[in-house]
Write a structure and sequence with these properties.
The chain is mostly helical. It has one domain. It is built from three helices and no strands. It has helices at residues 2-30, 37-64, 69-127. Helix 1 runs antiparallel to helix 2 (37-64) and helix 1 runs parallel beside helix 3. 4% of the residues are buried.
């Protein structure tokens, strides 16, 4: 059971790392520093893979462990606290992810707006361009040249 608790603690530590990485990137995005997005995505994926590994180990240990009522009573408070900590971290991560998604959407909208303005400016400039045909004088009706 101690090994199981160890994996639960490690899993929570990686949730904390995940939260920290997300906070750091959100701060960078607030400062318009998007150059680290690939590093951020790769880091999060690595951390998620580690968390999945711990999930697998926990499930394997849990299935192999025969718990008596004494074990359940003895370990329940610690397991409950670890699960509550994980839930608290998960909620913080979800909230930060929603904030990050909002920031990305804002940036996307600004970029689309800039592209539209650029295209409109290009069209306006094109309308002033000199035609390849020479200008002909306009003749008034009734007069012959």
């Amino acid at each position: 059971m101690d090994e199981l608790l160890g994996y639960l603690k490690l899993k929570n530590q990686y949730f904390e790392k995940f939260l920290k990485v997300t906070k750091q990137f959100l701060q960078s995005s607030d400062e318009q520093k998007w150059h680290d997005i690939s590093f951020f995505v790769d880091n999060r994926e690595r951390i998620l893979n580690i968390i999945r590994y711990f999930d697998h180990k926990i499930a394997k240990l849990f299935n192999a462990h025969q718990m008596a009522n004494v074990d359940v009573i003895r370990y329940r408070p610690e397991v409950k606290k670890l699960l509550q900590d994980r839930e608290r971290l998960a909620k913080k991560i979800v909230n930060l992810d929603l904030e990050l998604i909002s920031t990305i959407d804002e940036m996307k909208s600004e970029t689309i707006g800039e592209l539209k303005r650029s295209m409109d400016s290009k069209r306006q400039l094109k309308s002033f361009s000199v035609s390849s045909e020479p200008l002909r004088p306009v003749r008034k009706p009734g007069k012959t040249a």
